[in-house]
Amino acid sequence: KGTGGDAVVSQYNTGNHSEVTQMATNASADVIQSGSDNTSELTQGRANLFTLFGEKARIVQSGDRNTSTASQTNSNDNLSVKQSGDDNTSTVTQSNSANGSGNASDPADVGVKQAGNWGVASVTQAGQGGIAYIDQISGGDHNTATIAQSVSNKPANGTYNFPLSVANITQGGDHNTASITQHSGATDANSARHETATTDQRGSSNAST
Fold it and tell me: Burial code of 187-204, b = ≥16 C-beta within 10 A, e = fewer?
């Protein structure tokens, strides 16, 4: 368990627990867990701190019944979670502005990527400029993906030229469920016109809201 700077955690076998806490700006964390029934807890940033140099984190879990919980509270944070196996759960919470779960310019840098069955992935973002990607395309069944984004204020017409919220869910396989919720907190369409949501489901008996 470390505070600030760079953190690297590698764990192998089953039943391991990793906890990383970083409060400094421009910190990075790399957590790798191989095996089943492992848990990872990541906390980065100080509440409501605006900075041009946010935190970066990568969490990789291979095996079944693994759990990843990640929270980033600065601005300009970026997070990538990759899980392979069945019955895995990933929960991501990002607050403040310009945070990304994944990178639109790098298709390999998916926010949350799960390969397997019965996976659960959730990304919650609050603030302007949130980008969230969930990829469950690797042929898994009975997966659930949820993205919730909220913007606390509305820009005036013509004063905001990039998306306030971008959400993308891709699922391959059958009996999967996808949900995207975007809420501007505004009373007009100024925020809504800058929000983009995309769901791509390629199997059978899937549900999307």
Answer: eeebbeebbeeebebebe
Q: Tell me the two tokens of residue 56.
A: 């970066």
Measured CA to CA, the distance from residue 140 to residue 158 in angstroms comes to 42
* Cα 133 from Cα 80, distance rounded (Å): 9
**Are 177 and 141 a contacting pair, CB within 8 Å?**
no
Whether the pLDDT of residue 106 is over 90: the answer is no
Tokens 């019955």, residue?
Answer: 87
SS3 65: coil
pLDDT one-digit tens code per residue, 18-48: 999 988 778 889 999 999 999 999 998 875 5
Q: What are the CA-CA distances from residue 96 to residues 10, 118, 130, 192, 193 (Å)? A: 29, 31, 9, 18, 20
The token pair at 53 is 């140099």
CB 24 within 8 A of CB 5: yes
What is residue 109's predicted lDDT score, i.e. its pLDDT?
Answer: 52
Query: Across residues 186-207, what is the average pLDDT?
Result: 76
Q: Which residues contact 206 (CB under 8 A, 6 or more apart)?
A: 171, 174, 175, 176, 177, 178
The one-letter amino acid at 184:
S
Q: What is the pTM of this model?
A: 0.86
Which tokens go with 76?
């300009």
In single-letter form, the type of residue at position 111 comes to G
